[in-house]
Design a protein that fits this description.
Blueprint lengths: L4 H16 L3 H15 L4 H8 L1
Length: 51
């Protein structure tokens, strides 16, 4: 069974919020920080590190 990546990320994120219960400001900082880093000059470095 093939699950789309966006669906898997939503499920894992929802489970993380329900089980760990981090503060909402931390979730917002992580989402905003990930978005900004993905659009920065560091994205090729992160891409090679992940792959």
């Amino acid at each position: 069974m093939d699950v789309p990546l966006w669906l898997a990320l939503i499920i894992v994120g929802w489970l993380g919020v329900k089980l760990i219960r981090p503060p909402w400001w931390l979730i917002a900082v992580l989402l905003l920080g990930g978005y900004l880093v993905a659009d920065s000059l560091l994205s090729p470095v992160i891409d090679t590190a992940v792959n």
